[in-house]
């Protein structure tokens, strides 16, 4: 059996699957053979310096051809014509193709939600309800612009609906350790769970509360009884029940109520409800003083307080406000800097 046939079989076996290792070995072999042939041809100007030799190979293989270095001997010209140029072109194309393929694969894995994320202090949205979820993300983006990143984690086989705007992870289940780890669940500062199926929402909420007990956990339920069940196991979870029926009844008795509630919840138009924490270390004050401060300094209206025993709406003006109390107010935009005096 001839050496050429053995070489062909070796090439098919080892280079047929051109992984990174095989490509590197081929490149090193091509460089070594090119240098040896040029030395034999007497092309000293091309081989006396490693820098000049590598530079010449890259310029030739990339077809740039500056012309500042070229073979001068007859044999050198044949070596370049029959081996260096065709071999270099092939390897250069393979290398560029592999690099481009790597970038495309990385981008595609992110688009399909297969990539592990390296994020922290993010808002993790679990669930997919098409336009409803997109609207939720848009509202979060408006609120968190320049602050916390948003990660969407879904179960359906879909691509990232907002590439370049939010991070995206697809999992088989919201209780899958490996899949949820790719969404950096333990580093999230807020977890929002909203699924069409309440049982999926409940299991996901219990799992998240176990994995990240310090995160602000929000869960939307169509069945309010499941909200109560979750609160029994996770007292710190904030459950959002469906209020569609209540809104219909309220609007029937007090026309315009639905528009009022929609504006209070909307973050991109009209007056909106926000919250702020009264700073720790501050002196105890009263609703009367803060109500006046909010209105005069920020053109905002103080509407409620929560000192840990639940939200107290429209509190008395004489109601004391201790440090670290949560205050709820209505304003055109979120107030980032309060003058507590």
UniProtKB/TrEMBL annotation:
Topology versus the membrane: Multi-pass membrane protein
UniProt record, GO biological process: monoatomic ion transmembrane transport; potassium ion transport
Keyword Membrane (UniProt): yes
Main location: membrane
Domain RCK N-terminal stretches: 133-232
InterPro entries membership: K_chnl_dom, NAD(P)-bd_dom_sf, RCK_N, Trk_Ktr_HKT_K-transport
GO cellular component: plasma membrane
Compartments, record wording: Cell membrane
Record keywords, A-Z: Ion channel, Ion transport, Membrane, Transmembrane, Transmembrane helix, Transport
Chain ranges passing through the membrane: 23-41, 53-69, 81-107
Record keyword Transit peptide present: no
Potassium channel domain: residues covered: 27-99
Protein known as: Potassium channel protein
Organism, scientific name: Photobacterium frigidiphilum
């Amino acid at each position: 059996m001839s050496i050429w046939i053995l070489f062909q079989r070796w090439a098919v076996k080892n280079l047929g699957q051109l992984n990174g290792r095989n490509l590197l070995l081929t490149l090193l072999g091509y460089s070594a053979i090119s240098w040896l042939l040029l030395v034999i041809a007497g092309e000293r100007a091309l081989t006396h310096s490693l820098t000049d030799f590598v530079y010449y190979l890259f310029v030739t293989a990339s077809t740039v051809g500056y012309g500042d270095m070229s073979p001068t001997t007859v044999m050198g010209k044949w070596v370049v014509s029959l081996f260096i140029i065709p071999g270099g072109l092939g390897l250069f194309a393979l290398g560029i193709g592999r690099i481009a393929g790597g970038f495309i694969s990385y981008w595609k894995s992110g688009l399909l939600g297969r990539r592990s994320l390296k994020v922290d202090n993010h808002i993790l949205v679990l669930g997919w309800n098409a336009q409803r979820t997109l609207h939720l993300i848009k509202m979060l983006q408006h609120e968190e612009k320049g602050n916390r990143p948003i990660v969407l984690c879904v179960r359906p086989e879909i691509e990232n609906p907002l590439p370049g705007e939010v991070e995206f992870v697809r999992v088989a289940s919201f209780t899958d350790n490996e899949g949820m780890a790719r969404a950096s669940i333990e580093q999230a500062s807020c977890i929002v769970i909203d699924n069409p199926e309440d049982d999926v929402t409940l299991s996901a909420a219990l799992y998240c509360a176990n994995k990240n007990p310090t995160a602000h956990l929000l869960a939307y339920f169509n069945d309010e009884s499941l909200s109560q069940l979750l609160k029994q196991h996770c007292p710190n979870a904030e459950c959002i029940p469906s209020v569609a029926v209540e809104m219909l009844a309220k609007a029937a008795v007090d026309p315009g109520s639905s528009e009022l509630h929609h504006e209070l919840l909307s973050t991109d138009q009209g007056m909106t409800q926000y919250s702020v924490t009264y700073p720790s270390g501050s002196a105890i004050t009263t609703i009367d003083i803060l109500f006046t401060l909010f209105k005069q300094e920020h053109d905002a209206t103080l509407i409620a307080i929560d000192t840990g025993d639940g939200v107290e709406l429209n509190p008395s003006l004489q109601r004391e406000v201790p440090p670290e109390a949560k205050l709820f107010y209505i304003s055109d935009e979120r107030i980032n800097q309060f003058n507590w005096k």
